[in-house]
Specification:
heterodimer; A: six-stranded mixed beta sheet; four-stranded antiparallel beta sheet; 29% helix; B: alpha/beta; Elongation Factor Tu (Ef-tu), domain 3; Rossmann fold; seven-stranded mixed beta sheet; six-stranded antiparallel beta sheet; 18% helix
């Protein structure tokens, strides 16, 4: 990994506080020993594609003239390490929204240029439930390179042309597979799949059939912090606002949350989703009903991050009827 | 350079008309190209240095030389829009959304019900209808505002009447001008919320289509009344307001349950919304 980090800006799960889940940081010599490849990071990878704040265009105002300009930056040599099957699937779901015509060119450029090195899950978190939303805890597509932990090392598999190039570029780091390694990978994958799957016995509840009052017990515990939204790898909502300094100005796309009170407020103070219950209900239904209506898949990948960060112990699995 | 759907096109303010103490209509012209839109669609208007906000087109879709938006002053972007002068440049993105399904309803009677600034997209609709007046049956407009001074497009209603549109106006609270002012002789002396106008009109729900836009409470009672009269939910169309930020179905701000107002709307048949807890 250190060899790779000489050629790429390498972002990976790093344990910043001992005993706490890893978060995403740039890998370097100083934190290399805190690289954590077993537990999935609490930070979602989405911020590398949909940054918390991003400039859409700038303008320069002069007498009777407005000059508009923008730049779609191309990330150079950025490699994200440690994505799990859920993270890759989440990016596919973000693609459905952000690349739907007309595509967001800022997002698109990042998707086309950032390298993704994923991992099989070896130690799923107790909050993981990917199997219940149709995923497997090991990547099947969407990666450039996937690493599967086996006895004594990792089995690397390229999933794209860029992944093949990566294998070639660093060929002295990789050896050919030896006998039994693929079988070992299959066994490990199956074992982790069963571990996650067997934690759940109840099917997903059809949330389109429950009344608004169903969500009240969760609403009572919600403090509107939006930790769930910001750690969710599929939450994509954003705000658009302007800044200006004298004759120069610009427009920003910034991270937003549908749980915020003012998210839908319109002119004259009218607020179609004024109650917290209506906003929380919208979020749960977006994941399990509306996203599916629109794009044919659940909007949730079962990563369990929202379960881990919620100070009100609101558990999306409970809302979805799984526990 | 890849194309950027967030980037506005420049347009020049040709004219600013004060419609009421709260509403101004801006007549705009693109610096390059023409704005082709359908009645009921919306645009995103940028006042440079302040921000961007969604407005429905209020002018005739058949006029390709310029287009208009009518803006009620309620916040920062609308306040800045009210300060715009002729010759200034603004940004526009759009048109966005679906518009009113006029092709489907040729030959039918149409009932148009507007409240407050909700009359803006309906004015565009009316211009579209009278441009092909013979294609439609009876056209009736019910329009209410809070007070006589807030009735907008004041000099246009008689012109619509000349084009065989039955126009009924009302105000929540009347005053001297309402009793004996310019509207008196025309018979516009009605006082009461817009649904009280239903008592004055003869409707044939069997062949009539309703188009409604206004504040949420007005939409709610208008829909109730239309259903009582026997209008099927599939022939009641509502133009809804949400804070459409991107207009592209990405930012999430305008969703109503699983619908995006910016893509699936802003015009919805009530049929699509009737099972939703709080659609307005």
């Amino acid at each position: 990994m250190l060899t790779l980090s000489k050629h790429y800006t390498l972002v990976a799960p790093i344990v910043e506080t001992p005993g706490k889940p890893p978060i995403l940081s740039q890998l370097n010599h100083a934190n290399f020993n805190r690289l954590e490849l077993k537990i999935r990071p609490l930070t979602p990878y989405k911020f590398f594609f949909q940054p918390p704040s991003e400039e859409l265009f700038t303008y320069k105002l002069a007498e009777g003239v407005v000059e508009l300009g923008y730049e779609v930056k191309k990330p150079e040599n950025l490699l994200l390490l440690g994505l799990r099957s859920c993270d890759l699937k989440a990016l596919e779901k973000l693609d459905m929204v952000m690349l739907e015509e007309p595509a967001d060119p800022f997002y698109k450029s990042k998707r086309e240029n950032i390298l993704l090195v994923s991992l099989d899950c070896s130690e799923p978190s107790p909050s993981c439930f990917c199997t219940e939303v149709g995923l497997k805890p090991y990547p099947e597509e969407g990666y450039d390179l996937n690493l599967s932990r086996i006895e004594g090392g990792y089995l690397a598999e390229a999933g794209s042309g860029k992944g093949e190039e990566l294998l070639k570029q660093f060929e002295d780091l990789f050896a050919g597979e030896s006998e039994g390694q693929l079988e070992q990978r299959s066994e490990r994958r199956e074992a982790v799949y069963r571990k996650v799957k067997e934690a759940y016995t109840k099917p997903l509840k059809d949330l389109s059939k429950v009344g608004e009052e169903y969500f009240m017990e969760f609403t009572k515990r919600c403090v509107e912090c939006s930790g769930c939204v910001f750690t969710c790898p599929t939450c994509h909502c954003f705000y658009i606002s302007d800044y200006r300094q004298r004759e120069l100005g610009g427009r920003l796309k910034t991270i937003d949350s549908c749980l915020f009170e003012g998210f839908q407020r319109v002119a004259a103070g009218v607020n179609p989703r004024a109650t917290l219950n209506s906003r929380l209900r919208q979020r749960f239904l977006k994941k399990f009903v509306y996203f599916k209506q629109r794009y044919g898949e659940y909007g949730c990948v079962g990563c369990g991050r929202c379960v881990e960060v919620c100070p009100g112990e609101i558990d999306i699995r409970e809302a979805a009827g799984l526990i | 350079m890849s194309s950027n759907p967030y980037l506005p096109r420049l347009a020049e303010v040709l004219e600013v008309k004060e419609e009421s103490p709260e509403v101004k209509t801006l007549k705009l012209k693109l610096k390059e190209g023409r704005m082709k839109f359908k009645a009921g669609q919306f645009l995103e208007l940028t006042v440079f240095g302040v921000g961007e906000a969604p407005f429905t087109f209020s002018s005739s879709p058949f006029n390709l030389e310029s287009f208009e938006v009518s803006i009620a002053k309620v916040g920062s972007v609308t306040g800045a829009a009210h300060r715009l002068k002729r010759g200034e440049l603004v940004g526009v993105r759009g048109p966005f959304g679906n518009g009113f399904p006029l092709e489907e309803y040729k030959g039918r009677d149409l009932l148009i019900v507007g409240g407050g600034i909700g009359i803006a997209p309906l004015r565009s609709l009316l211009y579209a209808l009278v441009a092909e007046r013979s294609e439609y049956g009876e056209l009736k407009l019910l329009y209410g505002a809070r007070s006589p001074s807030l009735i907008i497009y004041k000099d246009e209603w008689e012109k619509f009447m000349e084009k065989d549109v039955e126009v009924y106006l009302t105000v929540d609270v009347g005053d001297e001008t309402w009793r004996c002012g310019p509207y008196g002789p025309c018979g516009y002396t009605h006082v009461g919320v817009v649904t009280t106008l239903f008592d004055l009109v003869k409707l044939n729900p069997e062949k009539c289509v309703a188009f409604v836009c206004g504040p949420p409470i007005m939409i709610k009672f208008t829909v109730q009344r239309l259903l009582q009269l026997g209008f099927p939910a599939s022939r009641i169309y509502l133009s809804l307001e949400r804070m459409m930020k991107c207009g592209l179905g990405k930012c999430g701000h305008c969703n109503i349950e699983g619908y995006y107002v910016c893509k699936d709307g802003p015009v919805f048949p009530f049929e699509m919304l009737k099972d939703i807890p709080h659609p307005f």
